[in-house]
Amino acid sequence: MALLGANGAGKTTLLETIIGMHKPKTGKVEFLGERIDGYKPHQVVEKGVALVPEGRQIFPQMSVLENLLMGAGSSYSKEKFSESLELIFKDFPVLKDRKDQLAGTLSGGEQQMLAIGRALASNPRLLMLDEPSSGLGPKLVDQVFVTLENLTKQKRTIILVEQHVKRALDLAKRALVLENGRISLEGDSASLKNNERVRKAYLGM
C-alpha cells in the first residue's frame, strides 16, 4: 500500500505511531486482531512489524552484520536469525560481501539496502518504509525500486511512503492519501492514478 500526502500531512507520524514511538490521542492501533498502541517499539517489532525510517538511521560505527543483528529483536532465536540472514544476503549480496565492514563506510545506496535488510532481520509480517529513495541518485533510486518489487513478489505486506509517487502507485496495489492527518482518498492504485486531484497534486499532470 502506498501512503501519499504533502509534507506535514502526517505520513511519518502515522508510521511512527504504528511502530510505538507515539501514542495516539484517540483511536487505537490493531495488528492481526491485537491492540498494540500500548506497546513499546521493540514489543511491536516482536509482534511482527518493522520500520525502515526516513534517512536510514543505521549505526555507522557498527559492522553491517551487527546492524542486521540489531534489527532481529531481543527475543529472536539465533536459528531464526540465520534463516533471515540467508534471505537478506540473497536479496542484497553486497551486504554479504561487506558484512564485516563498518556501516558508516558504505555508499548511500548500500546504506539504504542495509536499513531495509535490518528491518527484514526480524522477518516482519508488516514492513513499513519511509521515503526509502530519499537523497539517492537516479540509478540508486532504480535499485531501491527493484528491491521493493522483489519484496512484493515475496508476498510481504508493505506500507510505502515515497516521494516518487507514480512509481509508488505502479508498485502498490492500494493507496491512501493523507491530508492534515486525515485520510481524504483511498482505493486501488490504478484508480488513484487516474484521480484528477491525485494527478494534479502528486503526479504533475
Question: What keyword list fits this structure?
Answer:
Rossmann fold, 44% helix, 10 helices, alpha/beta, 205 residues, globular, six-stranded mixed β-sheet, two-stranded antiparallel ribbon
What secondary-structure arrangement, pairings included, does this model have?
Blueprint: E1 2-4, H1 11-19, E2 30-31, E3 34-35, H2 41-47, E4 49-52, H3 64-71, H4 78-91, H5 93-97, H6 108-120, E5 126-130, H7 138-153, E6 157-161, H8 165-171, E7 174-179, E8 182-188, H9 189-193, H10 196-201
Parallel strand pairs: 1-6, 1-7, 4-5, 5-6
Antiparallel strand pairs: 2-3, 7-8
Helix pairs in contact: 3-6, 6-7
Care to describe what's here?
This protein is of the alpha/beta class and 205 residues long. The chain has one domain: Rossmann fold (3-Layer(aba) Sandwich). The chain contains 10 helices and 8 strands. The strands form 2 sheets. The protein has a 6-stranded mixed sheet with strand order 4-5-6-1-7-8, with helices on both faces. A hairpin with a 2-residue loop joins strand 2 and strand 3. Helix 3 runs parallel beside helix 6 (108-120) and helix 6 runs parallel beside helix 7. The two termini are 22 Å apart. The mean pLDDT is 90.
Shape: globular
- Supply Rg: 17 Å
Poorly predicted runs: none
CATH superfamily: P-loop containing nucleotide triphosphate hydrolases
- SSE order: EHEEHEHHHHEHEHEEHH
- Strand-residue fraction? 15-25%
What is the makeup of the main sheet? 6 strands, mixed
Task: Could you tell me the CATH topology label.
Answer: Rossmann fold
Which percent bin holds the helix content? 40-55%
Number of helices: 10
Integer average pLDDT: 90
> What is the strand arrangement across the widest sheet?
4-5-6-1-7-8
Q: Domains counted in the coordinates: how many?
A: 1
The overall strand count is 8
